[in-house]
Specification:
Helix content: 25-40%
Strand content: 15-25%
Shape: globular
Structural class: alpha/beta
Number of strands: 23
């Protein structure tokens, strides 16, 4: 944690948001060494964290990161010259995905983007830098088991991760005048790092932001002093991933690459696609070779990279399983159907896809708040010009420092619906958890008969039931920055869905982007939770605060809400299927329960191969995933350093 007054406005501090442009990565095979000790596949949030720490800890060992994208400037979510949350013309590169049609959601598709740039999704995300509750991480550790035959003291519960959360970020407290103006609160004991990954509270809020804060208080939701220290129920201020002086986006491409250069043993190869990993002498002969394809060579030049110690897959929840499947590591039935020789049958690869989703409650006002500044002011050229000048000043100020906003409520199921309804939902989940045949019926068809996947899903359901029954473990998130978009909108994020999707190779073009099947609502209990959350959020419009402004509900509306079937239809028509938090596709669970990696992040049965990214989480967390991705990278680096310390 750093005090704002203690910051030195050195040249480095002023330009570090742009320094990524000056990095000098490798661009072709001829620039590489004959071999590297560690090869990391994917220059994203977790991968660059690991690369930074390994190259720092082992100055005599070499580290290579292979990245599909290139080094780019990565503007914030809401930077000049955009209007309020409109597409940035200079945004860093992304992959855009549209899932298969979702039958349970009237054939809607999930649309999402992930980073295709050095820095990964930390360079393109919403900059909302929260952590889940301690109970979410404790649930991860419960599913971890012994994660196979490995006897380990590595635990992924809150106690085991909290030191890495603290290490992974430098939190700067806001100036006292800003803190008083917006009633910001925090607890410095939740932080303590000095790494050049920055987070702070922005020096600006829209004038109508407090309206929903007061309305949520009217509903009985209590403000929390700090939501990053393990306890998260309540109204939260959330740090933003930005430099505390310039307010420019802080991301892994800066903090774990360009800001730590020069470092002779740390190499980055850009604009290359890792097609697969190869075990020429069998799975016990690792580490594998890394087959790589040039994206700039007209002929798509393919070559192998040799790792002497380990290969670490950090390509993200959508691309890590794709690489494994191309390597013959994944569900045997799918690989055979794809004509890929089965190297290792791991049915969990790409088979546990999860994301946050949810429908909105919307409204208009009969007496709109006459508060300034408001988002609509961005439509006025003079206001926008002044906002741009404020953003370019030192220190930065004004609307463009806000990103997408940094406030949200997090509410547990017992606190948003009746005791009987909570009990009924939990009872339904536990009934499925106890029945292999019932659990199997809700899994994707190609793994529905696999005993390990059924067992793992049963374990997950039991753990989710315990989470949802816990009055301190949030099941609902509603973030906001303004109360009048228009229309006013309160999103209902389901934080712990029961439905499971898949990530599978595109069989017509295995080198293309994978096929996503979200299967949202395939477990119908998700609709029970959506109903409970949506009915709860509608109470917002009956609060004294909202009545004072003449809030009039648009959706779902009183008539629709009287009937469960009609409200479910509203959910299907209006749900947003991805809030851009895909995860869990190479889960840390025992192999006997469909797990892909053990507690040391090593792929079951594949020597010299680890996975370090958001695919290893077995259950999606009640948080946006960026802060956790950094913490996982930090903890993974320690695991790897311990394994190799003292070895040549």
């Amino acid at each position: 944690m750093v005090s704002y007054g203690g910051l030195v406005l050195s040249l480095v501090a002023l330009v570090d948001a742009l320094v990524a442009e000056n990095a000098t990565p490798k661009r072709q095979e001829s620039q590489l060494l004959d071999s590297y000790d560690f090869v990391i596949v994917g220059g994203g949030t977790s991968g660059l964290t690991v690369a930074d720490r390994l190259s720092e800890a082992f100055p005599r060992k070499t580290v290579l990161v292979v990245e599909y994208g290139k080094v780019e400037y990565a503007p914030g979510l809401f930077d000049p010259p955009t209007g309020w949350i409109t597409p940035a013309p200079d945004a860093a590169s992304t992959w855009s995905f549209n899932s298969l049609p979702n039958p349970e959601m009237n054939n809607k598709t999930a649309s999402l983007q992930v980073g295709q740039v050095v820095g990964g999704s930390s360079a393109v995300n919403g900059m909302f830098f929260d952590r889940a509750s301690r109970f979410d991480y404790d649930a991860w550790a419960q599913l971890q088991g012994d994660a196979g035959t490995l006897k380990t003291k590595t635990r992924w519960d809150w106690r085991g991760l909290f030191p890495y959360f603290k290490k992974s970020v430098t939190f700067t407290v806001p100036p006292s005048a800003i803190a008083r103006k917006y009633n910001y609160t925090w607890d410095v004991s939740a932080y303590g790092g000095s790494t050049p990954i920055y987070a702070t509270y922005p020096p600006f809020q829209w004038a109508d932001q407090p309206i929903l804060w007061h309305a949520f208080k009217d509903m009985g939701i209590k403000p929390a002093k700090e939501c990053a220290a393990g306890d998260k129920e309540g109204i939260c201020w959330v740090p933003t991933s930005q430099h505390p002086v310039t307010a420019r986006r802080s991301h892994a491409g800066i903090g774990h690459y360009s800001a730590v250069l020069p470092r002779a043993n740390y190499h980055l190869l850009t604009q290359h696609q890792v097609t697969r990993v190869i075990y020429p002498k069998g799975l016990k002969s690792g580490p594998p070779l890394v087959e790589t394809r040039s994206l700039t060579n007209p002929n798509g030049h393919i070559f192998n990279i040799t790792a002497k110690a380990e290969v670490i897959l950090s390509a993200g929840a959508l691309h890590t399983p794709t690489i494994l499947q191309r390597s013959g590591i994944g569900p045997a039935s799918f690989l055979r159907a794809a004509g890929i020789p089965v190297v290792l049958d791991l049915p969990g690869v790409g088979s546990n896809l999860q994301d946050h989703s949810g429908p909105p409650v919307t409204w208009n006002y009969t007496s709109p708040p006459q508060l300034r500044p408001a988002p609509r002011d961005m439509l006025h050229p003079v206001f926008k010009q002044n906002a741009t000048a404020a953003f370019d000043a030192v220190p930065a100020s004004g609307p463009y420092t806000l990103a997408g906003g940094n406030s949200a409520i997090f509410v547990s199921l017992p606190h948003l619906t009746s005791k009987p309804n909570t009990a009924a939902i939990i009872s339904k989940i536990r009934a499925i958890a106890k029945s292999p045949s019932l659990a199997a019926s809700y899994l994707p068809p190609d793994i529905r008969s696999n005993p390990s996947m059924i067992s793992g899903y049963q374990a997950q359901l039991g753990t989710i039931a315990n989470l949802l029954a816990n009055p301190q473990a949030p099941s609902l998130e509603t973030p906001w920055a303004t109360s009048q978009a228009p229309p006013g909108t309160a999103w209902s994020f389901i934080l712990h869905p029961l439905s499971r999707g898949t990530v599978r190779l595109n069989l017509t073009d295995p080198l293309a982007q994978p096929i996503l099947d979200y299967r949202a609502g395939s477990n119908p209990i998700d609709f029970d939770i959506h109903l409970a959350q949506l009915r709860y959020l509608r109470r917002l419009l009956r609060t004294p605060t909202m009545k004072n402004h003449g809030a009039q509900e648009i959706g779902p509306g009183e008539a629709v809400s009287r009937n469960d079937d009609a409200l479910i239809e509203y959910i299907k028509q209006n749900i947003y299927l991805s809030f851009l938090h895909p995860c869990c596709t190479a889960a840390m669970m025992p192999e006997s329960q469909g797990g892909v990696v053990d507690a040391e992040l090593a792929v079951h049965g594949a020597m010299g191969l680890r996975v370090v990214d958001m695919s290893v989480i077995p259950l999606i967390l009640g948080a946006h995933l960026s802060a956790t991705a950094y913490a996982v990278g930090e903890k993974a680096a320690d695991v790897i350093i311990r394994a190799w310390k003292g070895r040549r």
